[in-house]
Specification:
Strand content: 5-15%
CATH topology of the largest domain: Rossmann fold
Structural class: alpha/beta
Shape: globular
Number of domains: 2
Strand order of the largest sheet: 3-2-1-4-5-6
Helix content: 40-55%
Radius of gyration: 18 Å
Order of helices and strands: HHHHHHHHEHEHEHEHEHE
Largest sheet: 6 strands, mixed
Number of strands: 6
CATH superfamily of the largest domain: Uncharacterised protein PF01937, DUF89, domain 3
Length: 282
């Protein structure tokens, strides 16, 4: 976290606290929040998620699974459009590329980073234009080449709702690369509106699913369960969806392809791209 990232992270937590109680309560909360940041310098933003959630529960009784209804609605919203999306994808010259575009567009469903600004009407408009998305085709061809020669793909998911688009992409990958063993990894428990085993079951994900063994909104290597750690080490290719997975993994030694929308000033600066730019990065 740099200073602007810290300011943003703290600001979102304090906005939530102020909406739940008095200014005096928020001040007490803020002091403990600052201690939380001081206790773990040098880590990325998602690492603080469980600690912030614990403080909000302690001071305000806020449910750690408070996005439960938003997650259900997101899953249902995209499932209602699944047949249409699959037809659109299947009618293109390159269904894998088309499915990848929809999967990246689905990264918009982020109730944490966008702080109440998620609009399903806006998502519908974005989906109508998904196939016009411009991606780094050199990176895409590299991904395809790695999948062609690889045997194991680990798919690190991000948000509920978004996971339906991930399902479409994985199914297209399975069609093109029938030799590929595809394994999905979700979060180990409630964190923001991130996908868990419950969401994977809810949308009928037809692939094996594991979880990362923790409630960090990313893939923090030091906190992974043994099952998730082995899956990561054994994977020939990793697809990592969303900014949280990018923040926690970027620069790691694994063969990771990051797929996300730019949704914060930190990522705008890092990649030199405007807000909501779709990204495919190795």
């Amino acid at each position: 976290m740099d200073s602007q990232c810290l300011q943003c992270h703290m600001g979102r937590a304090l906005d939530t606290a102020r909406s739940l109680g008095t200014e005096e309560q928020a001040t007490v909360f803020a002091r403990e929040l600052m201690q939380l940041y001081l206790s773990a310098p040098g880590v990325s933003s998602p690492n603080f998620g469980p600690g912030v959630a614990a403080l909000l529960e302690k001071h305000y009784g806020l449910d750690k699974d408070r996005y439960r209804e938003e997650k259900r609605f997101s899953n249902a919203f995209v499932m209602e459009r699944l047949d249409t999306i699959e037809r659109q994808v299947g009618s293109t010259e390159d269904p894998v590329l088309a499915a990848l575009k929809f999967a990246i567009m689905g990264n918009y469903l982020d109730f944490s980073a966008l702080q109440g600004k998620v609009s399903f009407e806006a998502l519908d408009n974005m989906l109508a234009q998904a196939l016009d998305m411009k991606l780094d085709m050199v990176c895409y061809r590299s991904l395809c080449a790695d999948l062609e020669k690889g045997r194991r793909l680990l798919y690190l998911t991000d948000n509920a709702g978004e996971i339906v688009f991930d399902r479409v992409l994985a199914q297209q990958l399975q069609k093109r690369y029938p030799h590929l063993q595809i394994l999905f990894c979700v979060r180990g428990g409630p964190v923001s509106n991130d996908a868990t085993r419950t969401d994977a079951a809810e949308i009928g994900l037809p692939f094996p699913v594991i979880d990362n063994g923790n409630t960090v909104g990313g893939t923090e290597l030091s906190l992974l369960s043994e099952e998730a750690r082995q899956a990561l080490e054994n994977a020939d290719v990793v697809i990592a969806k969303g900014m949280g997975n990018t923040e926690t993994l970027y620069g790691c030694p694994y063969n990771v392809y990051y797929a996300f929308l730019v949704k914060c000033p930190r990522f705008q600066r890092k990649f030199g791209k405007p807000l909501f730019t779709p990204m495919l990065v190795k």
